[in-house]
Amino acid sequence: MVLRLSGDDARRLAVRAQLLSAERPAGIVETVYGLTAVNIEPTAAIAASAELILWSRLGEPFHPADLTRAVEVERDLFEWGGFYRLMSDLPLLRADMRHRPDYPAAREWLKANAAFRGDVLDRLRAEGPLHAAEIPDTAQVSWRSSGWTNNRNASQMLELLLSTGAVAVSRRDRKGRLFDLAERVYPTDLPEIHDDDAARERAERRLGSLGIARSRSLAQPFEPIDVGTVGEAATVDGVEGEWRVDAEALAALDGWSGRTALLSPFDRLVFDRDRLGDLFGFEYLLEMYKPAAKRRWGYFALPILHGDRFVGKLDAKADRKAGVLRVHAIHEDAPFSASVADAVRSEIAALADWLGLEVRGLD
Fold first, then answer.
1. How far apart are the first and last CA of the chain?
2. Is 36 exposed, middle or buried (0-12, 13-18, 19+ CB in 10 A)?
3. Are 244 and 234 in contact (CB under 8 A)?
4. 359 and 346 in contact (C-beta within 8 Å)?
5. What is the pTM of this model?
6. How far apart are CA 103 and CA 121, in angstroms?
7. 141: which DSSP letter?
C-alpha cells in the first residue's frame, strides 16, 4: 500500500522531524539525537553553522559554550565526517569506518605510506593531542591533488585516520582541531553492532530526522540523504516520484503548530536542494562562493521558515567589532503579510539578542 500525502502534510512532516515546529527540544543531546548529525561548517558570517543550527531549535537557552562542553568535557558528542554526532551513535558508524577510505587512490596512498602512518600514530601516542601542523611530514609518497590538500601530507593522513576511526578529534582551539588516538577520546565499552543492523538503524534514524525522504538520491561523502527501503512508501500530491515516510511521525501531525525560524545554509532541512524544491517550492543557493556582483540574496543569506513554508532569505552579517547585526536585506519570495513581517522581525531581534548584538538596518 502506498500512502498519499497532501503537500501540507509532507512539508509539516519534514519541518516537525527537523525539530522546527512550535514544540522545541529540551537540550543539546535531545536535539542531536533528533537530527542525527549537525553540520560543523565553521564559516561565521553570523555564527558557526553548528551553533546556528542548535540555536534555531533550542532558542535562547543555548549558548556556544554548551556545545563545547558537550564535545570536549562531557563527551556526549563527537566529530566525524564534518558533523557533530552523539557518542552513543558511534557503534552505528563503525561499519562505515571499517570500509574507509572509500576511494582506491586514498587506499593506495595509505598502503604506500605505512611507515608514515606509524609515525603519526606514535607521535600522537607520545605527545597528543596535536594540531596537524605539529606532526612531522615523513611521508614516503606525497599526496597529490588539484586542490588545497596537495602535498599536505600530515593533515591528509590525519583526515584519513579520522575517517577510519583510528584517530579522533579531541578538541578545537583558535588554531583548529587537535587530534589524538581514538581510544583516548572514544569510549571503549560501547557495544558492537553487525554491519547490516547498523546500516538499517542508521537509515531508520535518518528517516526519523527527515520525516520524508527519497529511497535513493545523490551520494554524499559521510551523511546520506536517502533512506533505502525503511519506512512506508508514499506519494505527495503534485510532486513526481515515490517517497519513504515515517508513518508514526505522520500519524502524530494532529495538532501541528509551526513557528518562524532563521536557518543555517547548511541546515539539513535545506541541504538537499532537490527535496527543498519538490516539497517546499523554494529556490535557494549558498552564494558565498560567487562574486559579489552575481549574488541575488547575499554572501551567507539565511533561509526564512514560517510555519511550513519558506518565505524568504535574510541577508545579514554579524559585525562583532561594532557590536551590531547588520541587516542588509530581507528578500521576500512573496510580499509578507503584516503578521509574517512581524514574526520575521521578532526572530531577527532574537538572533541579535543571542549573539549579544544590536540590530541595524531593519528600519
1. 53
2. buried
3. yes
4. no
5. 0.95
6. 22
7. S
Our CA angle for 322, 327, 331, nearest 5°, is 165
**Collapsed DSSP state (helix, strand, coil) of residue 145:** coil
Q: How many CA atoms lie within 13 A of 248 on its CB side?
A: 7
Task: Return phi, psi of residue 187, to 5°.
Answer: -60, 150
- 3-class DSSP state of 101: coil
49, 55, 60, 66: CA torsion to nearest 10: -70
Pairing outcome for strands 176-181 and 83-86: unpaired
3-state secondary structure of 14: helix
Q: What is the pLDDT of residues 27-64, one digit of tens each?
A: 999 999 999 999 998 888 999 999 999 999 999 899 99
Contact 312, 297 (CB under 8 A): no
C-alpha cell at 68: 563545547
**Cα gap 167→185, rounded to integer Å:** 9
Rounded Cα–Cα distance for residues 22 and 257 (Å): 5
Could you give the C-alpha distances from 50 to 31, 55, 262, 321, in angstroms and in order? 12, 9, 13, 22
Cell of 36: 542525527
What lies within 8 Å, CB to CB, of 241 at 6+ separation is: 214, 235
Question: 17 in helix, strand or coil?
Answer: helix
Please choose, from the candidates 231, 206, 249, 203, the residue with its C-alpha nearest in 3D space to the C-alpha of residue 10.
249
Cα dihedral: 353, 355, 357, 359 (round 10):
-70
Given CA atoms 334, 337, 342, 343 in this order, what sign does their dihedral have?
Answer: negative
Residue the block writes with cell 528578500 = 331
pLDDT tens-digit readout, 175-213: 999 999 999 999 999 999 999 999 999 999 999 999 999
